[in-house]
Specification:
Length: 248
């Protein structure tokens, strides 16, 4: 679909159609997958247009950029929405994500978890989080190193130990996992990454049944149908809905 010659509502409908077809291929209920429309770099006016078209979950990358945008959209939007923080959060900015967000997708270290817990305890509040793990082995990816976790016993020990500590921290409610797949031309190349995340989630659920583990955040514009086929419950889609990312 030509993004220039279509409306946002048409692009959103096309994405939802692809999601439904992927669910059908996998024998899944379409309601089991949540579309997070990635609104980073886009202005409140365009976000409100998306909300009017039916978007209810929005993803932002930078806490400092998102804060004024969340306020502006709240003043303009016809319906309430859920905000997701999907980008890397620096520890010095942790306080910024302890409010306003329905879900933090990118809890990527024990140190960040500790900082968040500190603020949440002081606020007497809680935050739903996903643990970001690197199952692709790419050096540029954030998160716990879980590449070939099922073959590297020493690495598994480290990951399991740190996750056990995260689960014990007050204020944090672990809901599942998130990963970033490699950016590739053929989405099938990303399938093993999505499969690895699902297997990792299943292993963690068996060993740490006290946590939820129901959510898998994986899949973006170029590969979300494959991610859905492999069990994604949250797909993060920006360009296919809003068009190319704006500079900034």
């Amino acid at each position: 679909m030509d993004l220039v010659e279509t409306t946002l509502a048409e692009r959103l409908a096309a994405v939802r159609g692809e999601m439904a077809r992927a669910c059908e291929r996998a024998g899944r209920d379409p309601d089991s997958v949540t579309l997070v429309a990635v609104s980073k770099t886009h202005p409140p006016s365009l976000i409100v247009e998306a909300i009017r078209a039916g978007v209810r979950d929005l993803g932002e990358n930078r806490p400092e950029e998102a804060a004024p945008k969340i306020s502006a959209v709240a003043a303009l939007a016809p319906d309430p929405v859920r905000w997701h923080m999907i980008g890397h959060v620096q520890r010095r900015k942790a306080r910024l994500v302890t409010r306003d967000y329905a879900l933090l997708h990118s809890l990527d270290s024990l140190r960040l978890a500790g900082r968040l817990s500190h603020y949440l305890e002081a606020q007497e509040s809680t935050l739903d989080v996903l643990l970001q793990v690197n199952v692709s082995g790419e050096a540029t990816k954030e998160g716990w190193d879980a590449y070939q976790w099922d073959r590297r016993s020493s690495q598994r020990v480290v990951v399991w130990s740190e996750i056990e500590q995260v689960l014990a921290l007050p204020g944090l409610r672990v809901r599942g996992l998130m990963t970033m797949a490699p950016i590739v031309d053929d989405p099938e190349v990303a399938r093993p990454v999505f499969m690895a995340l699902r297997r990792l989630r299943d292993a963690l659920r068996e060993d740490f049944p006290q946590a939820d583990w129901s959510e898998l955040s994986m899949g973006m514009t170029d590969d979300f149908p494959v991610a859905i086929e492999e069990g994604a419950t949250l797909v993060r889609i920006g360009r296919a809905i809003f068009g190319a990312r704006r500079p900034g």
